[in-house]
Amino acid sequence: MVRQYDSSRRKNAAEQTRQEILQAALKLHWEGITEFEPLAREANCSLATLRKNFPTKEAIFQNCTRTFAETLVMPDLEAIGAISEPEQRVEQGIAELCRIHEAMFGYAWLGAHQRKDSPTLEAEMKTYEGLADAMTEMITPIDSEKSSLVRGLLDFLTYRALRLAGGLSPAKCAEELISMIQQLIPGDINPPSKSTAKRAQSHES
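The chain above was modelled as a monomer; its predicted structure follows.
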């Protein structure tokens, strides 16, 4: 009787190794580390195994971005843009954006530094920046002189500075940004409209 070879165990082991490499990469990317040698050590595999699964940094970026995106719940921009009470829309929008800033904290810093060398990170950063653009549009009229100031306050670099240099907690960052923006644009908050909701949808897609 010919003994049949069961390849499923080998495939499962290979997939487990691949996932361990991705989890190690996500951890190191949070710290700004992208080199293959420390990644192989962190994943407890050889350089040969690492390169077999991911021949280039770009391949790692692509798979890490996909894996990370599966865990990230994006804000419902259309629902936020449709909130009729201006102050509530500001609070909800900024709170949701700060939630994303916190989730993206390390990865965004990596993307900001390496986006010029990676099409994957460049695309990811443009999408990320588009989220802050959409929130700005929901809060201030397009022709407002304060739009650029609001956009600057909503940028992930501002959030990062408040967290690191300011020593603020995520909740305190959101609270301070809400307070600053409400003082900056009292009575000048963009009213909800169908066009705002459509622009929000375009940023999500």
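The chain has two domains: 8-60, 77-204.
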